[in-house]
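Tip: read the tokens left to right.
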């Protein structure tokens, strides 16, 4: 009996020491549209950009739990607290992850559907309104999770002939690019908890559409809107690089 007691006691001490020395845990909640969700991928649960980002970081020693709240067709308006549409989903995810000793990060990439000429909720969203919507989302979440941070990623490029159930086209692509300065303003105005995310992926995808996008058809031909499996890996890698600038294993 004594030997059993000693072994159990030592085991307890080892577990306590491991807990004290274990690295900080991270909880990530991804807010986005069909690109974040992983639309057109064979298995979004295994191939979506958030999954790819987490895989990269876990290989580098980051202990991470995450939730992908990307929703196809969504705009910043859909995530507003007052809309009561997608905001509860984000809170539910954050509640399940938020805990003492956990660094909570909201990774946000919205704007593609905001930029559409017609179709998605609130579209077309003017740059100033885009900023106001994001600020309200951030403020509402930060009030509920005061130790949280927010990383704002630039929306990725899409081809100027993009049109499905919604209309984007050249007008939408031009509008999309007016959103990035608004992201910079949000970071400047909220330096304590809003972080600069990716700014490279727009140009990257623009240069490599055939390789990194799923080709989709409309009456005008092939358009590029959603990353394919390889594109999702690249997008996740860009996001992971940004994460590593602020956080360590």
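Filled-in amino acids:
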């Amino acid at each position: 009996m004594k030997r059993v007691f000693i072994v159990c006691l030592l085991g307890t001490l080892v577990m306590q020491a491991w807990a004290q020395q274990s690295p900080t845990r991270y909880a990530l909640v991804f807010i986005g549209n069909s690109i974040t969700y992983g639309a057109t991928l064979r298995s979004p649960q295994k191939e979506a950009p958030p999954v790819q980002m987490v895989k990269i970081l876990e290989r580098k020693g980051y202990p991470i739990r995450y939730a992908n709240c990307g929703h196809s067709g969504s705009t910043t308006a859909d995530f507003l607290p007052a809309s009561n549409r997608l905001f509860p989903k984000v809170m539910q995810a954050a509640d399940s992850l938020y805990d003492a000793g956990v660094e909570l990060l909201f990774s946000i990439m919205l704007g593609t559907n905001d930029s559409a000429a017609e179709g998605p909720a609130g579209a077309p969203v003017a740059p100033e309104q885009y900023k106001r919507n994001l600020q309200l989302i951030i403020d509402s979440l930060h009030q509920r999770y005061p130790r949280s941070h927010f990383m704002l990623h630039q929306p990725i490029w899409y081809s100027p002939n993009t049109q499905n159930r919604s209309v984007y086209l050249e007008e939408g692509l031009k509008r999309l690019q007016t959103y990035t300065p608004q992201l910079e303003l949000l970071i400047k105005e909220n330096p304590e908890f809003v972080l600069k995310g990716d700014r490279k992926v727009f140009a990257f995808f623009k240069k490599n559409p055939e390789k990194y996008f799923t080709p989709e058809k409309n009456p005008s031909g092939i358009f590029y809107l959603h990353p394919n499996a390889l594109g999702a890996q690249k997008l996740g890698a860009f996001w992971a690089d940004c994460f590593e600038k602020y956080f360590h294993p």
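DSSP finds eleven helices and seven strands in the chain. The chain has a mean pLDDT of 91.
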